[in-house]
Amino acid sequence: MNTTDPDHELAALTLLLARSPTDAESLLPLLQQVQRQFGYVSPGVMRVIAQAFNLSRAEVYGVVSFYGDLREAPVGRHVVQICMAEACQAVGCRELARSAEERLGVTLGTTTTDASVHIEAAYCFGNCALGPSVRVNDVVYGGVDESRLELLLAELRRLPVEREPTATTTTTTTATTPSAVTVTRGAASRSRVYVPNDTAARSVGADDVAEAIAKVRPDVEIIRNGSR
Fold first, then answer.
1. Which residue of 85, 143, 186, 227 shows the fewest CB atoms closer than 10 Å?
2. How far from each other are the two terminal CA atoms of the chain, in whole angstroms?
3. Distance (Å) of CA 203 to CA 61, 74, 136, 171, 190
4. In angstroms, how far apart are the furthest CA atoms of the chain?
């Protein structure tokens, strides 16, 4: 939620502070909650948090400015990050970024005029084997080509898609980290299927594969583990 209403912001922040410890280790988790709720961490919020934690505003600002996912000003409703690290550069992320800029009519680090999409460079999602990698909000996509990126942007802005996308990738949510091994058992399990649960596998559809297997073969035991 993005809001610029000071009264609403203060009321919501008061609730967050009431539920949060005020030791040093709790500062970053609280700032992350503020980021999720408001879309950014305003100077006023930093001032209130500094008082609650008995810190200087400079100390709180230092944390906000250090972490790229904490923002000091609101951006678009959706954030699109294109990995520009070396592994993704080797497989075309620069061309992908130019295509995104042309499609949206903006440059990296800026927001569309309708405030729907903010696009920016990022550096490594830990998915180097499946570049170019793109993160849309909290979802990482691997092996993204221009057609796939066009579809993703069109879905965000409800724009027409001029050509058919290639079916090269599917989505995976990275906001939470699952346990190392997740087991789903059917009523009468006779066989066992291992579906990788690492970042690379999930970025190209491992979650969808596990779900599809569970639907068509409820008798199969599905084990989500590390890469195999």
1. 227
2. 39
3. 33, 27, 12, 6, 29
4. 61
Determine how β-strand 182-184 pairs with β-strand 221-225.
antiparallel
Q: Rounded to the nearest 10 degrees, what angle do helices 43-53 and 6-18 cross at?
A: 30
**18-27 contacts: CB < 8 A, separation 24 or more?**
22/52, 22/53, 22/54, 24/53, 26/53, 27/53, 27/55, 27/60, 27/63
Strand ranges in the chain using DSSP code E only, listed in sequence order? 78-83, 110-111, 117-122, 134-136, 139-141, 172-173, 182-184, 192-196, 221-225
Give the amino acid at 62: G
Q: How far apart are CA 36 and CA 34, in angstroms?
A: 5
Chunk the chain into consecutive blocks of 10 residues (it has 228) and report each block's average pLDDT, rounded to whole numbers. Answer: 65 91 93 90 93 95 91 89 94 95 93 91 90 91 92 76 41 40 47 83 84 87 76
This prediction has a pTM of 0.65
Best CA proximity match to 191, nearest among 218, 220, 214, 212:
220
Pairing of strands 139-141, 172-173: antiparallel
Specify the pLDDT at position 4. 56
For 16, 184, 207, 208, 219, the CA distances from 215, given in Å and listed in that order, are: 40, 11, 13, 11, 10
**115 SS3 class:** coil
Contacts of 91 (CB under 8 A, 6+ apart): 131, 132
Residues with Cβ within 8 Å of residue 149, at least 6 apart in sequence: 96, 99, 100, 103, 134
